[in-house]
Prior knowledge:
Blueprint: E1 3-10, E2 18-24, E3 31-40, H1 43-49, E4 59-60, E5 64-72, E6 84-87, H2 97-100, E7 118-119, E8 126-127, E9 137-141, E10 145-147, H3 154-157, H4 163-174, E11 182-186, H5 190-201, E12 206-211, H6 214-223, E13 227-230, H7 236-242, E14 249-254, H8 259-268, E15 269-277, H9 291-297, E16 300-303, H10 311-323, E17 335-337, H11 342-351, E18 357-360
Parallel strand pairs: 4-8, 11-12, 11-14, 12-13, 14-15, 15-16, 17-18
Antiparallel strand pairs: 1-2, 1-4, 2-7, 3-5, 3-9, 3-18, 5-6, 6-10
Helix pairs in contact: 4-5, 7-8
This protein binds adenosine-5-diphosphoribose and zinc ion (2 copies).
Amino acid sequence: MAQEVRGVIAPGKNEPVRVETIVVPDPGPGEAVVKVQACGVCHTDLHYKQGGINDDFPFLLGHEAAGVVESVGEGVTEVAPGDFVILNWRAVCGQCRACLRGRPQYCFNTHNAKQKMTLKDGTELSPALGIGAFAEKTLVAAGQCTKVDPAVAPEVAGLLGCGVMAGIGAAINTGGVGRGDSVAVIGCGGVGDAAIAGSRLAGAARIIAVDIDDRKLAKAREMGATHTVNSRSTDPVEAIRELTGGHGADVVIEAVGRPETYEQAFYARDLAGTVVLVGVPTPEMKLELPLLDVFGRGGALKSSWYGDCLPSRDFPMLVDLHLQGRLDLGAFVTETIGLGDVEKAFARMHEGDVLRSVVVF
Ligand code: APR
Ligand code: ZN
Ligand code: ZN
């Protein structure tokens, strides 16, 4: 029997979001219905609302979530009712050219639930990133459910489903940060701070946080930054070079998504160093660099999709490290809020005093 639950929808471009009754079908083959316990408010949800992702309104927002599997459809073996799971938005297919080459983290054919959730009048909803978890229950592909230790608090666990995983993964998966490395992180929001925490976890010796907001830099220190640079008042490239013996950092992580910060990252790394772009640019942005510098400085210029994570490998591992006290994921949760507070949380995002607002059910 399809169920009716409450969920947050974005009805149209730039219209305020609102709580509506949504209809969640029973899971079909390969699908699962999850009772959502917590879901973080991410910039991508705001981008959906603003029409910045596509025009498939109405959207069912929310995608950084954890909860308990309620029911599964035919043929589902990887999770069972009662499992505590983090939802991921890249359920790998196992069959595309990336998967077949042993690089499932790049899967080019990730999948979502086939059936649609709807409004009561039958209008089909587009779930944000194929999840739609600002809802009491949501329908996903079973592969989007990653089982983790249920001892972790849901509001903490859910964050691994998107921004925090993107940042940690940018450092440890894409950037390959290792023991003794020098790392600079440009942009210290939720993603940048997670890159800092990931760099500390990986054993980086020097972690330089760069931001234009002193409040963000103070928080970055709590997350593990050993040095901070306010790039409003100080040239960040010079400062990073000075802090690294005049050379530049081994790995520079760009967590803003703008050409000027990318250029800073490019010049702030050591010769043969690595730049990781995890900030997401907008379509009109362009980059201009002397090609000779691209050649002459060598190294690697990489982008990090979802932290190049493999949910089945990375989520349980990071939850375990958190439970052991080695990774403070709780530090990312600024406030817990109700389902009706998402619009307010979008406003707080702009004020810059929140890492993550998390809806709890
Ligand atoms: N130089 C340095 N820092 C900057 C600059 C700049 N020119 N402009 C903005 N910042 C800082 C902000 O002060 C803020 O601390 O970048 C940070 C951005 O953080 P958030 O807005 O909280 O965004 P976050 O959730 O961390 O995501 C960062 O990653 O996944 C992408 O779409 C996401 O592009 C976004 C980026
Ligand atoms: Zn694949
Ligand atoms: Zn997100």
